[in-house]
Write a structure and sequence with these properties.
- With 202 residues, the protein is mainly alpha-helical.
- The chain is elongated.
- It starts with 5 loop residues before the first helix and ends with a helix.
Length: 202
C-alpha cells in the first residue's frame, strides 16, 4: 500500500477493524492502537468514532464515483442513460463485470460492504444505510434505466421495477457469494447477461 497520511491511516485501520469486528465493538482506543498513535493524537484528526465512520462513508462514495468515471458511466448516476443506448451483450457484460469487480475487490469498498453487513443487525441506522446503498438505490437506479430504455424502444416494454429486480437480483446474489472475481463468477455473469438480454430483446 502507498504511504498514507496519519488521517488516512486512521480511516483505513478503522475500516479494517469495523469490517471484522463491527462498528459497535470497536473503540477509539482500538483504532489508535492499530494506527500506532496515542488516543489523544487521534482527536487531532477526528472528533469521535462517528466522525471517522462518516468519513469512511464519504471516502467510499467518492471511490464509487471514480469507478463509474473509469468506465465512462458517471453520467448515468445523475439520470443520463444515453451511454446505455444500443449497448451490446459484450458491452453490458463489461460494464457489469467492472462494477462487480469494484465492489468485491476494491480494498476499501469490499471492507465497507462487509462492515455494513456485519453491523446491520446491531445498529438500525447502519442497517438502513446498507439496504439503501446496496439494495434500494441500486434497484431505483436500474428501474429508471430500464424505463428509459423502454421509452427509447431499445428493450421490450414491461414493468421497469420488475425488470430491474430481475437484472440486479442475481448480480447481488453473486456479489454476496463470491469475494473475488474469477472464472466461475465470469461464467455466471455471462449466463445471466445472455439470459436477461434474450428475455428483454424486442
Amino acid at each position: 500500500m502507498i504511504d498514507l497520511t496519519t488521517k488516512e491511516k486512521i480511516i483505513y485501520e478503522a475500516l479494517c477493524l469495523f469490517s471484522t469486528r463491527g462498528y459497535g465493538s470497536v473503540s477509539v482506543r482500538d483504532i489508535s492502537r492499530a494506527v500506532g498513535i496515542k488516543e489523544s493524537s487521534l482527536y487531532n484528526h477526528f472528533a469521535n468514532k462517528q466522525d471517522i465512520f462518516d468519513t469512511i462513508v464519504a471516502v467510499c462514495q467518492l471511490r464509487a464515483l471514480e469507478s463509474y468515471k473509469a468506465i465512462n458511466m458517471q453520467d448515468t448516476l445523475t439520470g443520463d442513460f444515453k451511454p446505455y443506448e444500443g449497448i451490446s451483450i459484450e458491452q453490458l457484460l463489461l460494464v457489469t463485470t467492472s462494477i462487480f469487480k469494484f465492489y468485491v475487490e476494491d480494498d476499501y469498498m469490499s471492507k465497507f460492504r462487509q462492515m455494513l453487513m456485519i453491523e446491520q443487525f446491531n445498529t438500525p441506522a447502519i442497517g438502513d444505510m446498507y439496504r439503501q446503498l446496496f439494495i434500494d438505490a441500486a434497484i431505483e437506479h436500474q428501474t429508471n434505466l430500464f424505463k428509459y430504455l423502454m421509452n427509447q424502444g431499445w428493450i421490450r416494454v414491461a414493468d421497469p421495477s420488475a425488470v430491474a429486480l430481475d437484472f440486479y437480483g442475481p448480480v447481488f446474489l453473486l456479489m454476496n457469494k463470491y469475494h473475488s472475481y474469477d472464472s466461475e463468477v465470469a461464467m455466471w455473469l455471462m449466463k445471466h447477461i445472455q439470459n436477461f438480454v434474450s428475455k428483454n430483446t424486442i
